[in-house]
Amino acid sequence: MQVATNKMVRALEEQTYMFKGHTLKELAITVKDYRDYLQSTKRTIVSDLDPTKLLRKLRTKGEFY
Amino acid sequence: MRLVLDSDVLVHALRIPRNKELLEIHEKASAIFESCILKTNDLFLPSEIPIEVGAVLSKIIPQELAREGIEKLLLTAEEIYPFTSDALLNSIYSISSNIYFREALENALMFTKIKKNEDDRNVPGWKDSKTEAMIGGMDVLVLTYAQLKNCILVTNDWSLWYVARRTGITSYWLSGLTDEMVSEIADGEVIDLAI
Predict the structure, then answer these.
(1) 8 Å CB contact between B175 and B103
(2) Which domain CATH number covers B58?
(3) Which member of A12, A52, B134, B143 has the lowest number of beta carbons within 10 Å of its beta carbon?
(4) Stretch B91-98: mean pLDDT
Protein backbone atom coordinates (compact mmCIF):
# COMPACT_ATOMS: atom_id res chain seq x y z
CA MET A 1 0.00 0.00 0.00
CA GLN A 2 2.85 2.33 0.95
CA VAL A 3 4.55 1.61 -2.37
CA ALA A 4 1.37 2.41 -4.30
CA THR A 5 1.03 5.72 -2.47
CA ASN A 6 4.61 6.69 -3.23
CA LYS A 7 4.01 5.85 -6.84
CA MET A 8 0.93 8.04 -6.88
CA VAL A 9 2.78 10.95 -5.31
CA ARG A 10 5.60 10.61 -7.80
CA ALA A 11 3.13 10.45 -10.67
CA LEU A 12 1.42 13.62 -9.45
CA GLU A 13 4.77 15.37 -9.08
CA GLU A 14 5.65 14.38 -12.61
CA GLN A 15 2.33 15.64 -13.89
CA THR A 16 2.78 18.97 -12.12
CA TYR A 17 6.29 19.27 -13.54
CA MET A 18 5.00 18.56 -17.03
CA PHE A 19 2.20 21.09 -16.70
CA LYS A 20 4.66 23.74 -15.59
CA GLY A 21 7.15 22.88 -18.25
CA HIS A 22 4.87 22.47 -21.19
CA THR A 23 1.54 24.13 -20.79
CA LEU A 24 1.69 27.03 -18.39
CA LYS A 25 3.58 29.33 -20.69
CA GLU A 26 2.50 32.78 -21.70
CA LEU A 27 1.78 32.15 -25.33
CA ALA A 28 0.87 34.64 -27.98
CA ILE A 29 0.58 34.85 -31.70
CA THR A 30 -0.29 37.82 -33.86
CA VAL A 31 -1.78 38.05 -37.33
CA LYS A 32 1.54 39.56 -38.45
CA ASP A 33 3.43 36.47 -37.20
CA TYR A 34 1.03 34.31 -39.16
CA ARG A 35 1.26 36.39 -42.34
CA ASP A 36 5.07 36.49 -42.16
CA TYR A 37 5.10 32.72 -41.84
CA LEU A 38 2.65 32.36 -44.75
CA GLN A 39 4.85 34.49 -47.01
CA SER A 40 7.79 32.23 -46.20
CA THR A 41 5.83 29.25 -47.55
CA LYS A 42 5.07 30.99 -50.82
CA ARG A 43 8.05 29.83 -52.87
CA THR A 44 8.84 26.68 -50.99
CA ILE A 45 5.95 24.43 -51.96
CA VAL A 46 7.36 20.96 -52.51
CA SER A 47 4.11 19.46 -53.68
CA ASP A 48 1.00 21.35 -54.72
CA LEU A 49 -1.48 18.61 -53.95
CA ASP A 50 -4.94 19.70 -52.89
CA PRO A 51 -4.97 19.12 -49.09
CA THR A 52 -8.66 18.14 -49.12
CA LYS A 53 -8.12 15.45 -51.75
CA LEU A 54 -4.96 14.23 -50.08
CA LEU A 55 -6.62 13.95 -46.68
CA ARG A 56 -9.68 12.24 -48.08
CA LYS A 57 -7.41 9.70 -49.67
CA LEU A 58 -5.41 9.22 -46.48
CA ARG A 59 -8.49 8.96 -44.28
CA THR A 60 -10.46 6.50 -46.30
CA LYS A 61 -8.00 4.67 -48.47
CA GLY A 62 -4.42 5.28 -47.46
CA GLU A 63 -1.87 3.09 -49.14
CA PHE A 64 -1.83 -0.65 -49.16
CA TYR A 65 1.44 -2.48 -49.49
CA MET B 1 -18.04 31.31 -32.02
CA ARG B 2 -16.42 28.05 -31.07
CA LEU B 3 -15.00 26.54 -34.23
CA VAL B 4 -13.50 23.19 -35.03
CA LEU B 5 -11.45 23.58 -38.20
CA ASP B 6 -10.86 20.31 -39.97
CA SER B 7 -7.31 19.31 -40.93
CA ASP B 8 -7.76 20.16 -44.60
CA VAL B 9 -8.96 23.68 -43.78
CA LEU B 10 -5.91 24.17 -41.58
CA VAL B 11 -3.49 22.90 -44.22
CA HIS B 12 -5.15 25.23 -46.74
CA ALA B 13 -4.61 28.05 -44.22
CA LEU B 14 -1.01 27.23 -43.40
CA ARG B 15 0.63 27.56 -46.79
CA ILE B 16 0.27 29.71 -49.91
CA PRO B 17 -0.35 27.38 -52.85
CA ARG B 18 1.43 27.69 -56.16
CA ASN B 19 -1.58 26.33 -57.97
CA LYS B 20 -3.90 29.27 -58.66
CA GLU B 21 -6.95 27.02 -58.47
CA LEU B 22 -6.22 26.44 -54.79
CA LEU B 23 -5.71 30.11 -54.01
CA GLU B 24 -9.37 30.97 -53.45
CA ILE B 25 -9.88 28.20 -50.91
CA HIS B 26 -6.61 29.16 -49.20
CA GLU B 27 -7.84 32.73 -48.80
CA LYS B 28 -11.13 31.58 -47.28
CA ALA B 29 -9.34 29.25 -44.86
CA SER B 30 -6.81 31.94 -44.01
CA ALA B 31 -9.52 34.52 -43.21
CA ILE B 32 -11.18 32.11 -40.78
CA PHE B 33 -7.83 31.13 -39.23
CA GLU B 34 -6.96 34.80 -38.67
CA SER B 35 -10.27 35.29 -36.87
CA CYS B 36 -9.11 32.59 -34.44
CA ILE B 37 -5.78 34.35 -33.89
CA LEU B 38 -7.71 37.54 -33.16
CA LYS B 39 -10.01 35.55 -30.82
CA THR B 40 -13.09 36.71 -32.68
CA ASN B 41 -13.62 32.97 -32.90
CA ASP B 42 -12.17 30.33 -30.61
CA LEU B 43 -10.39 27.42 -32.21
CA PHE B 44 -11.09 24.05 -30.59
CA LEU B 45 -9.23 20.99 -31.79
CA PRO B 46 -9.00 17.35 -30.84
CA SER B 47 -5.33 16.34 -30.57
CA GLU B 48 -5.62 14.16 -33.66
CA ILE B 49 -5.95 17.21 -35.90
CA PRO B 50 -2.52 18.84 -35.33
CA ILE B 51 -0.96 15.40 -35.85
CA GLU B 52 -2.74 15.01 -39.16
CA VAL B 53 -1.98 18.59 -40.22
CA GLY B 54 1.70 17.97 -39.42
CA ALA B 55 1.66 14.77 -41.45
CA VAL B 56 0.25 16.53 -44.50
CA LEU B 57 2.01 19.88 -44.16
CA SER B 58 5.42 18.17 -43.99
CA LYS B 59 4.65 16.55 -47.34
CA ILE B 60 3.90 19.80 -49.11
CA ILE B 61 6.35 22.28 -47.60
CA PRO B 62 9.87 21.80 -46.16
CA GLN B 63 9.94 20.11 -42.76
CA GLU B 64 11.25 23.11 -40.82
CA LEU B 65 8.52 25.36 -42.21
CA ALA B 66 5.94 22.71 -41.42
CA ARG B 67 7.19 22.71 -37.83
CA GLU B 68 6.78 26.47 -37.71
CA GLY B 69 3.27 26.17 -39.12
CA ILE B 70 2.31 23.66 -36.45
CA GLU B 71 3.68 25.98 -33.77
CA LYS B 72 1.44 28.75 -35.10
CA LEU B 73 -1.49 26.36 -34.98
CA LEU B 74 -0.77 25.29 -31.39
CA LEU B 75 -0.49 28.92 -30.32
CA THR B 76 -3.80 29.79 -31.96
CA ALA B 77 -5.88 26.94 -30.56
CA GLU B 78 -7.85 27.58 -27.41
CA GLU B 79 -7.75 23.90 -26.64
CA ILE B 80 -6.14 20.80 -28.07
CA TYR B 81 -8.25 18.19 -26.42
CA PRO B 82 -7.50 16.59 -24.01
CA PHE B 83 -4.70 19.11 -23.35
CA THR B 84 -5.31 22.66 -22.22
CA SER B 85 -3.22 25.36 -20.57
CA ASP B 86 -5.37 24.91 -17.46
CA ALA B 87 -3.99 22.22 -15.13
CA LEU B 88 -7.40 21.61 -13.51
CA LEU B 89 -9.10 21.17 -16.88
CA ASN B 90 -6.36 18.74 -17.85
CA SER B 91 -7.40 16.50 -14.95
CA ILE B 92 -11.08 16.71 -15.81
CA TYR B 93 -10.43 16.02 -19.46
CA SER B 94 -8.54 12.86 -18.69
CA ILE B 95 -11.85 11.58 -17.31
CA SER B 96 -14.07 12.98 -20.07
CA SER B 97 -11.91 11.38 -22.74
CA ASN B 98 -13.68 8.15 -21.83
CA ILE B 99 -17.00 9.76 -22.85
CA TYR B 100 -15.38 10.99 -26.06
CA PHE B 101 -14.18 7.49 -26.85
CA ARG B 102 -17.59 5.89 -26.25
CA GLU B 103 -19.43 8.52 -28.25
CA ALA B 104 -16.94 8.23 -31.11
CA LEU B 105 -17.35 4.48 -31.12
CA GLU B 106 -21.12 4.80 -31.36
CA ASN B 107 -20.79 7.37 -34.16
CA ALA B 108 -18.38 5.06 -35.99
CA LEU B 109 -21.01 2.34 -35.98
CA MET B 110 -23.87 4.64 -36.91
CA PHE B 111 -22.59 7.21 -39.37
CA THR B 112 -19.57 6.07 -41.39
CA LYS B 113 -21.83 5.09 -44.26
CA ILE B 114 -25.13 6.86 -44.74
CA LYS B 115 -27.57 6.94 -47.60
CA LYS B 116 -27.85 10.38 -49.15
CA ASN B 117 -31.28 11.92 -48.84
CA GLU B 118 -32.80 12.91 -52.21
CA ASP B 119 -34.42 15.89 -50.48
CA ASP B 120 -30.91 17.35 -50.09
CA ARG B 121 -30.32 17.61 -53.84
CA ASN B 122 -30.14 21.41 -53.66
CA VAL B 123 -27.18 21.46 -51.27
CA PRO B 124 -23.92 22.77 -52.78
CA GLY B 125 -21.59 20.08 -54.10
CA TRP B 126 -24.33 17.46 -54.48
CA LYS B 127 -23.50 14.72 -56.99
CA ASP B 128 -26.19 12.43 -58.38
CA SER B 129 -23.59 9.80 -59.21
CA LYS B 130 -23.15 8.68 -55.62
CA THR B 131 -26.00 7.50 -53.44
CA GLU B 132 -24.03 7.13 -50.22
CA ALA B 133 -21.71 9.32 -48.19
CA MET B 134 -18.86 7.55 -46.48
CA ILE B 135 -16.42 8.80 -43.89
CA GLY B 136 -13.50 7.18 -42.06
CA GLY B 137 -12.45 6.75 -38.43
CA MET B 138 -10.51 10.01 -38.30
CA ASP B 139 -13.59 11.87 -39.56
CA VAL B 140 -15.59 10.29 -36.75
CA LEU B 141 -13.16 11.62 -34.13
CA VAL B 142 -13.43 15.14 -35.57
CA LEU B 143 -17.21 14.98 -35.87
CA THR B 144 -17.64 13.59 -32.35
CA TYR B 145 -15.44 16.26 -30.84
CA ALA B 146 -17.44 19.03 -32.55
CA GLN B 147 -20.63 17.37 -31.30
CA LEU B 148 -19.48 17.06 -27.67
CA LYS B 149 -18.02 20.56 -27.56
CA ASN B 150 -21.05 22.07 -29.25
CA CYS B 151 -18.76 23.67 -31.81
CA ILE B 152 -19.33 24.62 -35.43
CA LEU B 153 -17.37 22.36 -37.75
CA VAL B 154 -15.70 23.88 -40.81
CA THR B 155 -14.40 21.39 -43.34
CA ASN B 156 -13.72 21.37 -47.03
CA ASP B 157 -14.51 17.68 -47.21
CA TRP B 158 -17.99 17.25 -48.66
CA SER B 159 -18.61 13.80 -47.19
CA LEU B 160 -17.71 14.83 -43.65
CA TRP B 161 -19.75 18.02 -43.98
CA TYR B 162 -22.79 16.12 -45.25
CA VAL B 163 -22.61 13.46 -42.55
CA ALA B 164 -22.04 16.08 -39.85
CA ARG B 165 -25.07 18.16 -40.86
CA ARG B 166 -27.19 15.01 -41.09
CA THR B 167 -26.23 14.21 -37.49
CA GLY B 168 -27.35 17.65 -36.37
CA ILE B 169 -23.95 19.33 -36.07
CA THR B 170 -23.75 22.87 -37.41
CA SER B 171 -21.14 22.61 -40.11
CA TYR B 172 -19.92 24.62 -43.06
CA TRP B 173 -18.44 23.30 -46.29
CA LEU B 174 -15.67 25.75 -47.16
CA SER B 175 -15.99 25.43 -50.93
CA GLY B 176 -19.72 26.12 -50.67
CA LEU B 177 -19.26 29.37 -48.79
CA THR B 178 -19.29 32.71 -50.59
CA ASP B 179 -16.73 35.37 -49.69
CA GLU B 180 -19.50 37.24 -47.84
CA MET B 181 -20.30 34.16 -45.79
CA VAL B 182 -16.62 33.69 -44.95
CA SER B 183 -16.45 37.33 -43.82
CA GLU B 184 -19.48 36.81 -41.60
CA ILE B 185 -17.93 33.72 -40.04
CA ALA B 186 -14.64 35.59 -39.57
CA ASP B 187 -16.65 38.29 -37.80
CA GLY B 188 -17.97 35.67 -35.40
CA GLU B 189 -21.46 35.50 -36.86
CA VAL B 190 -23.35 32.25 -37.21
CA ILE B 191 -24.61 32.04 -40.78
CA ASP B 192 -27.93 30.45 -41.41
CA LEU B 193 -27.66 27.97 -44.24
CA ALA B 194 -31.20 26.88 -44.83
CA ILE B 195 -30.12 23.75 -46.64
Answers:
(1) no
(2) 3.40.50.1010
(3) A12
(4) 80
